[in-house]
Amino acid sequence: MLRRVFVLRTRFQFIATGILTGFSSSMWSMCRPAVTKLMYLRLIGFAILASSALGLSSCADKAFRYYSDTQYPAKEREEVEILWSKPDKPFTVIADFQARRISIFETRRGAAKYMQSKAAEIGADAVIVGAYGGWRARSDKWASEDSHATSFDRYTGTAIRYRSNVP
Amino acid sequence: MKKKLFGLFVASILSVTGCAAVHVTKTSMGFHEPTIPDKVEIRMTLPGRGFVELATVASSNWHLGQTAKMHNSMRAKCAPLGANAVVITASGVVGEGLSARMWTAGMAIRYTE
């Protein structure tokens, strides 16, 4: 029984490691006696990772709209400001981006960088990032109470150019 | 080990079934400052004053009888968009008996006057 539990645990660990590390060689050298089985388990882990990555990326919903009559030269990503609220300076909206499932490890920061890179492609001065939707706990009673305030279903980016930069 | 795994499985199932989901798809141009969730109106009819549509919104996986909570979920998730109201355009029930769940869909709007 104990042996079976140990085997199950080891298999679980190696599959998890395979998911996390793919084909990394460190685990390989640690477990040389069971090379064939290990390789098999790693392959399973890698296959799960690859299929989930493919599955999620194929479901990505990215949709963009461009409003300006003028085409602006592209910028470096770092030149575009990331904002989470309206700036004080007057501005013109040149495009809107929205996306869900940008990557399998989606974070607010990662989404902001993605929006920043899209805004840089069209020569925006800044991008106002928004995160909307997500989970809602059935136990939440107040409208302003949101136990899942950090879960989001959709990210948006509003690409802007400051009025001083609009010809 | 098996017990732990089973516990983990049950916990993950509970964590998912204890939640509803709100999907928001922006339809408007630009960005609006967030509003206060408690002040977002839930409407079944269009308002008499001017407004702009901000987004489509859908809330699902609610138990029957949790209509008010479902409305609050829309208030909470549409306020960050800058919505003053959500106009409900469709609702329904999926499944039967204990597995029956409510859903509702509508549009988030912002008053212009």
Task: Outline the structure in words.
The complex is a heterodimer of chains A (about 170) and B (about 110). By secondary structure, chain A is of the alpha+beta class. Chain A has helices at about 1-20, 25-30, 35-60, 110-120, and strands spanning about 60-65, 80-85, 90-100, 125-130, 135, 155-160. Chain A has two domains: about 1-60; about 60-165, Translation Initiation Factor IF3 (2-Layer Sandwich), CATH 3.30.110. The termini of chain A are far apart. Chain B is an alpha+beta fold. Chain B has a single domain, classed as Translation Initiation Factor IF3, CATH 3.30.110.70. Chain B has two helices and five strands, in the order αβββαββ. Chain B has helices at about 1-15, 65-80, and strands spanning about 20-25, 40-45, 50-65, 85-95, 100-110. Chain B has a five-stranded mixed β-sheet. The model of chain B has no long low-confidence stretch (mean pLDDT about 90). Chains A and B meet through α1, β3, β4, β5 and β6 of A and β1, β3 and α2 of B. β5 (about 135) of chain A pairs antiparallel with β1 of chain B, so a sheet runs across the interface.
- Total number of distinct structural domains of chain B: 1
> What are the secondary-structure elements of chain A, in order, as H or E?
HHHEEEHEEE
Overall pLDDT of chain B, averaged? 89
Low-confidence stretches of chain A: 20-29
Unreliable sequence segments of chain B: none
Query: CATH homologous superfamily of chain B, by name?
Result: Hypothetical protein apc22750. Chain B
* Biggest beta sheet attributes of chain B: 5 strands, mixed
Please, how many helices of chain A?
A: 4
* Helical coverage of chain A, percent range: 25-40%
What is the CATH architecture term of the largest domain in chain A?
2-Layer Sandwich
Count of extended strands of chain B = 5
Sheet with the most strands: spatial strand order of chain A: 1-3-6-4-2
Distance between the termini of chain B: 62 Å
Amount of helix of chain B = 10-25%
